[in-house]
Amino acid sequence: MGALVTELELRKDEFENKTVETIYFGGGTPSLLSKEELELLIGSIYKNYNVSIDPEITLEANPDDLSERTILQLSQSPVNRLSIGIQSFFETDLKLMNRAHDASEAKQCLEMATRYFDNISLDLIYGIPGSTNQQWKDNIEKALSFGVNHISSYALTVEPKTALASFIKKGVVEHIDDALAEQQFHILIQTLENSSFVHYELSNFGKEGYFSRNNSAYWQGKAYLGIGPSAHSFNGEQRSWNVRNNSKYIKALNNKELPAEIETLSTTDKYNEYVMTGLRTIWGVSLEKVRHDFGEVYEDYLLITSQRHIKEHLLYIEDDKLLVTKKGKFLSDGIASDLFKINNH
Question: Model's pTM, two decimal places?
Answer without folding.
Answer: 0.92
